[in-house]
Design a protein that fits this description.
Strand 3 and strand 4 form a beta hairpin. The protein has 7 helices and 10 strands. Helix 1 packs across helix 2. By secondary structure, the chain is of the alpha+beta class. The protein folds into 3 domains: 93 residues, no CATH class; 59 residues, no CATH class; 106 residues, no CATH class. It has a 3-stranded antiparallel β-sheet with strand order 1-2-10. Strands 6-5-9 form a 3-stranded antiparallel β-sheet, with no helix packed on it. The C terminus is likely disordered. Bound molecules: zinc ion (3 copies). One zinc ion (ZN) binds next to loops.
C-alpha cells in the first residue's frame, strides 16, 4: 500500500514537473527545447518561478552551469532579444503590488509597492531584507461585510495570535468588530486595505467597541456582543502583530537587472 501511495505521489510530482516544462517552453515561445526546459526546471527542483527568473536574469556563467558550455548561452541571449519575450518580460516586471512588511526586531511596520515576482523590502532600521507578509497575516484599515448587509471600514487583523483576551488566554484567528448598524454581529475583516485603496480613514458614526483593551472602551447598557480584542493602533500594546520572515538571497538576484530605486515606491505618508 505504501508503495502504491508513493507511486501515486511520484506520478503527481512528475505530472506537475511536466506541466512546468511545458509552461516554461510556452512562456519563452518554444525557444527552449523540451530537454533544455526540463534541465532548467530540474535544476530548480521543479520550482517554476525560479526557472522563469533564471530564463530572464541568469548570467552567462550561471547559464553554462545549468545548460553546459554548448550553445545554451547563445540560445538564452536569442530568447531575451526576441521581441515577444521582451514584451512579456516587461509586463511581468511591472506587475506590482502594495504589500505589508514588518520587522519584529525593530518593532516597525510599513507598506511598499514591490514587483509581484520579488516581494522583498528592506527594514529601514536594521537594513535586513524582509519578505512581504502573506495576505492572511496583514493588519490595518480593513473592509468588513456584515451578514446584515452592512459594509463598513474599521481596523482589522487577519491573525491575532500575538494578542491575548481579557482572561489572558492567547487568541487565534481573525480580529472581530461589532457591526455598528445591526449591533448584533461580530464581523471578521474581509480584507486589509493597502494605503492606496483606503477610503477615508475614520470610524463610522455610531461605531463603538466593547473590547476590554479598547482605548475608548464602551460598556454596553444592554446586552451586546463583546469584541474579544480591539486592534485599533491606539489600543494595541504592540506595533507588530506578525513579524515578516527575512529574505535570503538566492544568488540570481533582480538587483543586477533593475536598481532598487526602480523597485521601491514609498507609499507611506
Ligand atoms: Zn529591522
Ligand atoms: Zn450588521
Ligand atoms: Zn476598540
Amino acid at each position: 500500500m505504501a508503495n502504491a501511495a508513493q507511486n501515486q505521489h511520484n506520478l503527481g510530482e512528475n505530472d506537475e514537473r511536466w506541466r512546468n516544462v511545458q509552461s516554461l517552453r510556452e512562456l519563452f515561445h518554444g525557444r527552449f527545447s523540451e530537454r533544455e526546459a526540463e534541465t532548467i526546471i530540474n535544476h530548480f527542483h521543479g520550482n517554476f518561478q525560479q526557472a522563469v527568473n533564471f530564463g530572464f536574469e541568469a548570467t552567462q556563467a550561471e547559464i553554462e552551469d545549468v545548460l553546459g558550455n554548448g550553445d545554451g548561452w547563445q540560445l538564452v541571449i536569442y530568447v531575451r532579444q526576441h521581441q515577444v519575450v521582451q514584451d512579456l518580460n516587461r509586463r511581468y516586471e511591472i506587475t506590482k503590488e502594495i504589500r505589508q512588511f514588518s520587522c519584529g526586531l525593530c518593532n516597525t511596520m510599513w507598506w511598499r509597492k514591490v514587483p509581484t515576482r520579488k516581494m522583498v523590502s528592506k527594514c529601514r532600521t536594521c537594513k535586513k531584507r524582509k519578505k512581504a507578509l502573506p495576505r492572511d497575516k496583514e493588519w490595518g484599515w480593513a473592509r468588513f461585510n456584515c451578514v446584515c448587509g452592512n459594509e463598513y471600514h474599521h481596523f482589522g487583523a487577519m491573525d491575532i495570535r500575538m494578542l491575548r483576551g481579557s482572561n489572558g488566554v492567547q487568541l487565534s484567528g481573525k480580529s472581530k468588530s461589532l457591526c455598528f448598524r445591526c449591533n448584533q454581529y461580530l464581523v471578521e475583516p474581509t480584507e486589509i486595505l493597502p494605503p492606496r485603496r483606503r477610503p477615508r480613514r475614520s470610524l463610522p458614526k455610531g461605531a463603538h467597541c466593547t473590547a476590554y483593551n479598547c482605548y475608548k472602551r464602551y460598556i454596553p447598557t444592554v446586552p451586546e456582543p463583546i469584541v474579544p480584542v480591539c486592534v485599533h493602533p491606539r489600543s494595541l500594546p504592540i506595533t507588530v502583530l506578525v513579524a515578516a520572515n527575512s529574505h535570503t538571497s538566492t544568488g540570481s538576484t533582480v538587483d543586477t537587472f533593475m536598481s532598487q530605486d526602480d523597485l521601491i515606491t514609498d507609499i507611506n505618508p
